[in-house]
Amino acid sequence: AQSVTQLGSHVSVSEGALVLLRCNYSSSVPPYLFWYVQYPNQGLQLLLKYTSAATLVKGINGFEAEFKKSETSFHLTKPSAHMSDAAEYFCAVSEGSASKIIFGSGTRLSIRP
Amino acid sequence: EAGVAQSPRYKIIEKRQSVAFWCNPISGHATLYWYQQILGQGPKLLIQFQNNGVVDDSQLPKDRFSAERLKGVDSTLKIQPAKLEDSAVYLCASNRKVAGNTGELFFGEGSRLTVL
Q1: Residue A29 Cα distances to A32, A33, A93, angstroms
Q2: If residue B55 lies in a helix (H) or strand (E), which one and from where to where?
Q3: What pLDDT is recorded for position A11?
Q4: Chain B within 8 Å of A17 (Cβ-Cβ)?
Q5: Distance between CA B99 and CA A101 in Å, rounded?
Q6: Interval B38-62 mean pLDDT
Q7: What digits encode the pLDDT tens for the residues A98-107?
Q8: Residue of chain B minimizing CA distance to A39
Q9: How far is C-alpha A18 from the geometric centre of its chain's CA atoms?
Q10: A vs B: CB pairs below 8 A
């Protein structure tokens, strides 16, 4: 069965600094991987997804993630943090389009002025 | 296109009372999910429907939770009787689930339940 682990429940960075949110996954087959963002009192919104094409995936709002099979990782990065990036970020894994999507526990990103 | 609609947005009840949440997915989306998100945790899948059939309800506490999607469109999730630990946000999501679909979910804004 697939699973996902997000390292760090809370990350705080300064505005303009690099954002790095860590995600490791477990899957018995080549996975589909996702990052979702959740702003306060809102539902989850897809940031980006990996579906076995390019290993470096670019998403919305300047975020990107790199699929590393050898490390079973799918870390999310953004070169320069903006105040509007403050939110909860969830990594998720699926074992194919017919499989359910399993979410990690989330990482809350705070941005310091 | 219209997004996933959920109601009510907020509900406060006392333990042992009942509550129902409603979800209308994006038009044409065959698959519908209910997730439970407890404060500080990631969403946990409760039940997955494909059209009006249940695909996965392995994590649904069936002694108190029930869900239906009678006409393969909108869905209702019911809790009866509610317990304190049911306090959470109940998220509905949908996707098209056709060949080549990458499994991306579209979420509603959620229904926040507080059980006192």
Answers
A1: 9, 12, 11
A2: strand B53-56
A3: 97
A4: no
A5: 16
A6: 91
A7: 678 899 999 9
A8: B109
A9: 15
A10: 60
